[in-house]
Design brief:
Elements lengths: L20 H22 L6 H14 L2 H14 L3 H12 L11 E6 L12 E7 L8 E2 L11 E7 L8 H14 E12 L1 H4 L6 H11 L1 E8 L3 E8 L8 E2 L2 E2 L10 H5 L17
Parallel strand pairs: 1-2, 1-4, 2-3, 4-5
Antiparallel strand pairs: 5-7, 6-7, 8-9
Helix pairs in contact: 1-2, 1-3
């Protein structure tokens, strides 16, 4: 009697959707680590530069590539509904929801991975992402945009922590401000660990850097994993932050957070990181 041949399951063309929050966090952490290392290797002059880049690319492929990272990000975002918080702040505390017949608020959504804000009828949203997963989301690098101070709102959820260098993160925050009109609002969401486990940043230094760039905190909240900020674009002359009686402005007009000014030196513990936003 012949045995029936067992059918092999076809190999999926894309990685399966991530369903475990723990696995999602591991993938996101690994992806950021590999991206940061690749950025450092790319700017080096080491003789084994190409071999190291190829090794990092293989490691990225083994974890599921950028598709797996996007899937992990989708799961993470589903547990902290940024769009709901944004619309609640705009319509409630800020009282900025347009009345019937008034033009919608202009919004730039950076790192969009769903269409929730795009579906809000009183918002005119331009949604961008490096690797778009939806036809309504434009595949575009934020740093390639020319700022014109035209937006009422910029929304950035879990994006700034993906930029590999402190200088790049600072430039992103400055860029957000330049895209906003005077009095416009930035909704910034990032992992709480960036502020509580960093060896280079504290909540205080982060807020002072935001202030020096030209942002005023309108609202903020924290969950066990995520920090939410609603920030208003305020003229720089109105920002006069002093720490210990001395200004934090640098000679070249840049900004040093209080952590840099005071010389933060935390012992590296399990889960520690080097997140910073100072230039």
């Amino acid at each position: 009697m012949k045995r029936k041949a067992t059918k092999r399951k076809p190999i999926p063309l894309v990685p399966p959707a991530i369903r475990s929050r723990k696995k999602a966090r591991q993938i996101v952490t690994t992806f950021h680590k590999l991206e940061k290392e690749a950025d450092e290797v790319s700017s080096s002059t080491a003789p084994d530069k190409q071999a190291r880049l190829e090794r990092l690319e293989r490691e990225l492929d083994e974890m599921g590539g950028r598709e797996a990272y996007q899937s992990a990000s989708l799961l993470s975002v589903s547990f902290h509904n940024t769009s709901k918080w944004v619309t609640k702040q705009l319509a409630g505390k800020l009282g900025l929801r347009p009345a019937n017949g008034e033009p919608p608020l202009r919004v730039l959504e950076v790192g969009a991975i769903n269409t929730r804000l795009l579906d809000v009828p009183w918002l005119d949203v331009r949604a961008i992402d490096l690797k778009s997963q939806h036809p309504r989301i434009e595949e575009r690098d934020f740093f390639s945009l020319e700022p014109a101070g035209e937006y009422d709102v910029v929304s950035s959820s879990m994006v700034i922590n993906c930029v590999p260098t402190a200088k790049g993160r600072h430039e992103m925050l400055v860029g957000y401000r330049h895209h906003l009109r005077n009095g416009g609002h930035l909704f910034l969401v990032l992992p709480l660990l960036c502020l509580t486990k960093s060896t280079r940043t504290t909540r205080e230094s982060f807020l002072e850097t935001l202030s020096r760039i030209g942002f005023t905190v309108v609202a903020k909240k924290e969950t066990p994993k995520v920090a939410f900020f609603c920030l208003r674009n305020t003229p720089l002359e109105a920002r006069d932050v002093q720490v210990g009686g001395s200004s934090l402005a640098t000679k070249d007009g840049g900004t040093r957070g209080a952590g840099a000014e005071k010389g933060i030196s935390r012992k590296r513990k399990h889960g520690a990181n080097d997140f910073a936003v100072s230039p």
